[in-house]
């Protein structure tokens, strides 16, 4: 029945000018029906960046950098309690869970040895004002990490680059014992992530490595593993 009614209305509409014409040859009218045509959906635009991380230390491998693009808040900051996702990076260099915290992310291919560098590409769709956060562990430490927090990418047009150097931070989740049992890097091959927190509990600037050479008898580290700030250099380039 609904189809018949619809058909009937259509026929009546078409017949209307004829009926009017039959009544009065001089009184012909046209019926104009306006139909709204939806605007085409805009094609999504990819916004891409290349991030190059250079290891500036003498004896600290930098874990594969975790790069996250997000729009709100901080994924870490000095003075804050670190998330478990950041703790996993700072204590064992594991970034899988940290990379899930944003709208887009990318991880490094492997550790960056002293003096080497690595370039990582990351793409986000239709967002030019995203924030960039990076985190990576200094492997021959208990819970030292480095990176950048919530840097505003809206400053970069296509082809623009920005370079910065970054210091080492202490996650505050594990005491800096430097022992063979607790340092996961190649200098000791000790334990990685441990959910028990026994240090300050908040992120701070890292005080540095003491080492056995400078009097910490229980340290598995040597003067070779000491570092000065900055520990990495970061270059960010918008490519698309």
Automatic annotation (TrEMBL):
<protein>
    <recommendedName>
        <fullName>Spondin domain-containing protein</fullName>
    </recommendedName>
</protein>
<feature type="region of interest" description="Disordered">
    <location>
        <begin position="171"/>
        <end position="199"/>
    </location>
</feature>
<feature type="signal peptide">
    <location>
        <begin position="1"/>
        <end position="22"/>
    </location>
</feature>
<dbReference type="InterPro" id="IPR038678">
    <property type="entry name" value="Spondin_N_sf"/>
</dbReference>
<keyword id="KW-0732">Signal</keyword>
<dbReference type="InterPro" id="IPR009465">
    <property type="entry name" value="Spondin_N"/>
</dbReference>
């Amino acid at each position: 029945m609904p189809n018949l009614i619809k058909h009937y209305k259509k026929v009546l509409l078409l017949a209307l000018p004829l009926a009017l014409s039959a009544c009065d040859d001089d009184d012909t009218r046209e019926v104009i029906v306006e139909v709204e045509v939806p605007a085409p959906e805009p094609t999504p635009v990819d916004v891409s960046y290349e991030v190059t991380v250079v290891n500036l230390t003498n004896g600290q491998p930098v874990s594969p950098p975790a790069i996250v693009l997000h729009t709100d808040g901080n994924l870490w900051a000095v003075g804050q309690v670190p998330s478990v996702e950041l703790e996993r990076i700072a204590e064992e260099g594991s970034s899988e869970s940290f990379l899930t915290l944003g709208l887009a992310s990318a991880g490094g291919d492997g550790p960056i040895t002293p003096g080497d560098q690595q370039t990582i590409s990351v793409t986000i769709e239709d967002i030019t004002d995203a924030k960039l956060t990076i985190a990576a562990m200094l492997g021959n430490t208990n819970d030292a990490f480095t990176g950048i927090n919530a840097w505003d990418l809206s400053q970069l047009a296509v082809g623009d680059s920005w370079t910065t150097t970054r210091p080492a931070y202490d996650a505050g989740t594990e005491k800096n014992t430097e022992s063979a049992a607790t340092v996961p890097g190649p200098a000791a091959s000790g334990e990685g992530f441990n959910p028990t927190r026994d240090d300050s509990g908040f992120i701070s600037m890292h005080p540095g490595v003491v080492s056995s050479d400078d009097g910490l008898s229980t340290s598995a580290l040597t003067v070779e593993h000491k570092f000065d700030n900055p520990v990495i250099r970061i270059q960010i380039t918008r490519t698309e």
